[in-house]
Specification:
It is a single chain. By secondary structure, the chain is an alpha+beta fold. It has 8 helices and 13 strands. Strands 1-2-3-4-5-6 form a 6-stranded antiparallel β-sheet, covered by helices on one side. It has a 5-stranded mixed β-sheet with strand order 9-8-7-10-11, sandwiched between helices. The longest helix is centred in the middle third of the chain and has 16 residues.
Length: about 290
């Protein structure tokens, strides 16, 4: 792969690659992703929007990260070595920066998802709230491993909504005024949650329920006992690891979005589908870490 001379000024320094047309980009340019620069070089044998990705100024084999193709047919960036497709150039580069441990880490995430989906005690939950600062619950939903909706309840939070939160999920004091309170629903939540493996996308949902329990149960010991009667799982780390978008800035896998619709039952089903995607992945290593 021999580099061409760059087309002057395209893309110019600071160009937002996510908003510009790849067909106008230079044959050679440097851009920064997660505070670390990469040099992008179009192969000399093509005029297509294709670039080899290197560490800047280095053209040794160890400086080559991989090749990316912009496809007009689907609008996605294709990673040549793996066949993956990503919506942004930056995410495609992040896949090229994965550490060598990623295949085994991805397989661990797959085994984790398979174990959960095989467990009849699995319950996927989502909580919509009054906001992000000192939030209270305004909607709780839960689905089991088969996708059956077990619970979907609006809640009168007995608190004001942040306007930003209402703009996202559409819930307001008026729309929840006639709903049950968290205290009213506590027996139902106890029946459905206790003894289950509760999976949510972040620890935020557990924190909201904990705050509600502290508000409605007078004894901190009762709160601890209620929470400890279930097993809580945060799905963000294994799903982010499985996706494998490596951030050199934070030296960790970037958290990925599920495509939230800000509606609790919908979010539960989105998370279930992502767990199924992980579980259906063909693993390359053994669960007991033997090659």
């Amino acid at each position: 792969m021999s580099p061409r001379y760059p087309t002057p000024g395209l893309p110019s320094p600071g160009t937002d690659l996510s908003r510009s047309d790849a067909l106008t980009w230079s044959d050679i340019f440097i851009t920064t992703i997660d505070t670390v620069p990469v040099e992008c070089i179009r192969p000399s044998d093509t005029d297509r929007p294709t670039w080899g990705i290197y560490t800047p100024g280095g053209y040794r084999p160890e400086d080559y990260l991989g090749t990316l193709h912009a496809r007009d047919t689907d609008g996605l960036w294709h990673v040549q070595a793996t066949g993956e497709r990503h919506a942004s150039f930056a995410d495609a580069v992040r896949t090229l920066r994965r550490p060598p441990t990623w295949p085994r880490e991805r397989d661990r995430a797959t085994w984790w998802a398979r174990s959960l989906l095989a467990d009849p005690a699995l319950l996927i939950i989502d909580v919509q709230t009054t906001g992000l600062t000192n939030p209270f619950a305004a909607q709780i939903a839960a689905v089991d491993g088969s996708g059956t909706l077990i619970l979907n309840e609006l809640i009168d939070p007995q608190a004001e909504f942040d306007p930003e939160a209402s703009a996202l999920h559409g819930l307001t004091q008026e729309s929840t005024r006639n709903a049950a309170t968290f205290h009213d629903l506590l027996p139902v939540l106890t029946e459905h949650f206790h003894g289950r493996h509760l999976v949510a996308y972040s620890t935020f949902d557990q924190a909201v329920i904990t705050r509600e329990l502290n508000r409605h149960l007078s004894d901190p010991g009762h709160v601890r006992a209620w929470l400890s009667s279930s097993h809580w799982h945060d799905a963000i780390p294994p799903i982010s690891t499985w996706t494998g978008l490596w951030s050199t800035r934070y030296h960790a896998y970037r958290h990925v979005q599920l495509g939230s619709r800000y509606e609790a039952a919908t979010n539960c089903h989105l998370l279930l589908r992502r767990l199924q995607q992980l579980a259906n992945h063909r693993t390359e290593t053994c669960p007991d870490n033997r090659p």
